[in-house]
Specification:
Layout: H1 3-17, H2 22-32, H3 39-56, H4 65-78, H5 88-97, H6 103-117, H7 122-132, H8 141-152, H9 162-175, H10 180-217
Amino acid sequence: MSQHTLTLLRFTYKKLKEKLTVSDSKKLFHEKFPYVIPGLYKRIVDEMLVELNLLNHQNEFTQDYLFCVGLTETFKELMKGYQPEKHLDLLFESLCCSTNFEAKEINEISKKSQKEFKDKTSKDILKLLVEKSNSKLYPSRILNLGIYILISNSQDFKEKNESDKNKMTSDIFEKLSLSANKAEKDIGIYKSSISKMEQAKELIEELRIKDKKKNQKN
């Protein structure tokens, strides 16, 4: 039996017996995903891994459909441009597996839920959110972003100005008995992260083109 197999078996046993530490999750992640992650994406992956590990330790946390939408869609958005693209499925699976989550199940729930909310107005989305949500949602950044993503895909959201978008979002969070202030902060940081990623990718591309031109001249 190889060292790699032994390590996976050891961690699988530990997963069944007790909660994994962040250090355990990192070791298991690198066993499952033995590739170098480009610096631009490494911080995002590290933050997601720590966040998922900590959520798994919360007794009140439940893996509901909002969490699944939030996790799959923020991963897709923040990983845009990752190369090689064919590694993304394994990267997501490794993140989930190393923190005691099931990637396949999360993807299936996310797809089903987004289909259910597709092509609806914000009022219909709020009604469906209230009907589907548990009486006590476990507040987390990922859940907040899942709700925001469903709202932002509503038919009338894109037509509104920024102020009306913010008010609509806050009203929906309040009606779900979730902190509108916390949600606003989580959404703001998420949008800022996307913007910074885009700027960084543009800068990297500009430098690549400059280097190419410089090498051609030489």
